[in-house]
Amino acid sequence: MQKRKGFTIIEVSLVLGISALAVAAFMATIGGRISAQRYNDATRGYVDFLQKIYSDVINVQNSRSGEIGDEAKYCTVSNQYNISHDAFANGDYDNEYPGRSACSIYGKLVTFGEKDEDKLYIYDVIGKALDLNETLGGSAGNVAAELADVYADVLALKRNSGGTCKLAPAGNSYSYTPEWGTRIETTDRNLLKGSLLIVRSPKSGAVRSLFMPRVLEIQKAISDNSNVNCDNTSVDSSTRLEPLLRNGDFKQENVDFCVSTNGLFVSQRSDVRLNSDGHNATAVELVEKDLKPEDGGNKC
To answer: Is residue 182 within 8 Å of 300, Cβ to Cβ?
Structure first.
């Protein structure tokens, strides 16, 4: 009797099983590399986002997309009736500010966890322009107090067609969404809720960052105040920058932003640190993962 040649069912099953394991291992490796690359891209994107804000604060460009130079008569709600110069309050300030606006852009406000977990909102910080001979009352060197002295804020009142007003961003505003479903968290893995100012000193022009661990709900204030009295200087006072700056709620301190992994195959979150004493984009630092937290390493 001739012996039959071929593979047994057990042999075929073993080959198929080994092949499946090899394919699975290959796919897991490829998937892990793709996830790691996406996470690195998201982290790099957030670093670039913060560095661009610094660049925009240093190299000011007025897009005129907000209310300044439009229907709004005053720079912001905070300084609508609080300007120390009577000429400005009367709207007749041509002699005091020849050839330029009575308003200045002093930087940016960034809100974390304001409305959507995956979005950050960015607003121009606008205040009264200083004339050449003006001094700030005893607040030199304290950027928060200097900004309070020029009534810096982010919202203005814009006239509706019916004679009432609505709350609106005083300058340019936009949103930023971290890439690949990541979000910005605290060191203890909670969603970061806070407000960040990257601003110039009204007097010296030096750039500083100030942080408050409480979010200003600007978007809610805008939606809740679409039809208000145009003379209402106390409209939604909870979002006012000026009293928070004057009371010291914004602190000049380092901030560690932890970029979440969002289920990607990454073993450790990245730490993007903002050094408060930095004067330019180099203040934004992607922290080394190999260093211990006590040695200035990753706190995330």
So the answer is: no
